[in-house]
Design goal:
By secondary structure, this protein is mainly α. Helices cover 65% and strands 6% of the residues. It has helices at residues 3-11, 14-17, 22-41, 46-53, 62-85, 87-107, 111-125, 128-142, 150-178, 182-185, 187-201, 215-222, 224-243, 249-268, 276-281, 283-314, 318-341, 346-365, 372-400, 406-431, 438-460, 463-466, 524-541, 554-559, 565-572, 611-617, 630-643, 660-670, 680-688; strands spanning 506-511, 544-550, 596-600, 622-628, 647-656, 676-678. The protein has a six-stranded parallel sheet, with helices on both faces. The protein is elongated.
Amino acid sequence: MSTGAAQADSATNGLARRPFAWTFTTPLYVGSSLNPINSSIIATALVPIAAELHVSVGATAVLVSSLYLASAVAQPTAGKLAEVLGPRRIFLYGVVLVLLGGLVGGLGQNLAMLTVARVLVGIGTSAAFPCAMVLIRRRAEEAGLDAPPGGVLGGIAIAGMATAAVGPPIGGLLVGAAGWRWAFLINIPVTAIAMAMALRWLPKDPVPDHGHSGFRKVADRIDLPGILGFAGSMTALVIFLMSLPHVEWIALAVFVLAAVPTVMWELRKTAPFFDFRGLAANGALARTYLRQALTLLGVYSVMYGMTQWMEAAHGFSTVGAGLLLLPMGAVSALLSRPLARRNLVRGPLIASAVTMLLGSVGIMLLTSHSPAIAIVLVSLIFGITSASTTVGNQTALYLAAPPDQIGTASGLFRTFGYLGTITSAVIGSIVFRDGVSDHGLHTLGIVLVAAGLAVLLLTVLDRRLMNRDPNRQADTPDASQNPKTPHQGESSVSNPTRPSITPERTALLAMDFQNGIVPLAPDADALVERVKGAIADVRAAGGTIGYVRVAFTENDWAAVPETNKAFTAVAAGKMLHHEDTATQIDERIAPEHGDIVVRKIRYGSASTTDLHQQLTDRGIDTLVLAGISTSGVVLSTLMDAADRDYRVYVLSDGVADPDPRTHQVLVDNVFPSRAHVIDTTGLRGLLGSA
């Protein structure tokens, strides 16, 4: 295919020209600001709430912890729902819950009603970030972009950090001018704006397949038992952590009793809510979660612990302490966007670890007689930490998470962040248990040095981050063709575009998905489910489905010459008889009327069949390949199809090989020079934009 033709195809795709217009990103930014602003704005309202409701100020702490707890549980749940039911739909449901929480809180007459309001707000605001990540990922796939859209991810980061930074000042103005109820009522106008923009500008979700509708079907697809088990486990764990240094044995027991059966259930589930096996295999994602938790432990220890120390030991007023930490939020917001635009991972993460270490050492050197400028300097250093860790880990998450699980992964990313935040409060209560003092602050500094060293080791020893692109699926055969090749050691990716798909001229080939071969593939059940979904997407778009199976008759065995190394053994062993159960197509993806079905006796799908003629008769010029194995039928069919001038796509998560290393080499290094390597989510996006 000529360069001119490729450019013409790309030019016809309007989405590729401006995939992330402001109309698409603005509702995502507004939605992403809801959780941090509700997390921070309540701080200024706790004392007035306690006074009007005649409760202690300590009792109002439940309004802070309830939102954190609800968010820690709801974030990955919302992500899973977004993957299954549609991100726009879940985003809107979340906005409605925030609106309801604002009304309940604004009209609340007791602490119980306010707590319910905060739980509603926590659950509702939790939908925004994972839904935004699903929408961004799908939009990038539709536009044919392999790279994370750095400016957009940077905007999401800024929306979170900037609103968290301005939350207390805004809260102070609102509460001072109109009363504490406006800490809740402010959600009403903001959610109204967010809902209007989402309804107007966010792309509609596909109409749900009737075969997957109904409560039981949806519950199975989202793994409802897994979600409930996770919710129970996480709730007990958070309550246990919040109770420290006092040990809440009941919460610990509930955690164990809920976690053990949940883990056992998830390990048996084909498509689990919390994919323990996948996380164990995906070290890059696991390290991203851990880095985020440890770094936010440091950042929030400064926000909470140093604030207590400044007021109780140094003698600053509440306003003065807040002003001294304000530069931290400002630096975070200012640095986020330029860092995110470059799509760097390793550099920002190293900067995050190093500045966390420097800031932690600075904390160890502070005393109650230190000048204000020294405190500001420490807060500025942690501002760099906050910006670089948010940007670096957010991009690492985008790269490491499986595309079809980006919503759940994004939610878990936030959950681990909340665990770090909660742990920071626990550490603060432990080091200051005998009173707020310089000694307690220095102990906090030592703890943060240890956490910073752990973050640094998790970064510099991560071999995935040493590569130029840890998760690349490129269309260009030579990276040097990209004029924006990053510096050595940085993690970044290029932005090649793919030609659009015309469904009527496209065929998805499901190759060798037969009973005797499917079990040879790693994680075979999940593979078949992904291919089943891809088949449904192509059918719905009006494309063609072709099935290829390898099977022999007695005459076929007799005709295999001795020169054929691979199939001489098949013939000698009388294997793969065409009537055997082992050669029949897996019933989970069984052919339907009108599909193409061919039987082959060699590796390639067209080498010993009339497949090419059938495709030509239907006007097919584009092939999407899924099959087992990557080094067998997929490789042979791709080479033959490329030589016949088909436009070829290979589904990276729809092909598999008994040898994972061979599979990876082919997908990463061989296929991109002859085909467009995408995944099933990317295929859905290309079909949807056709």
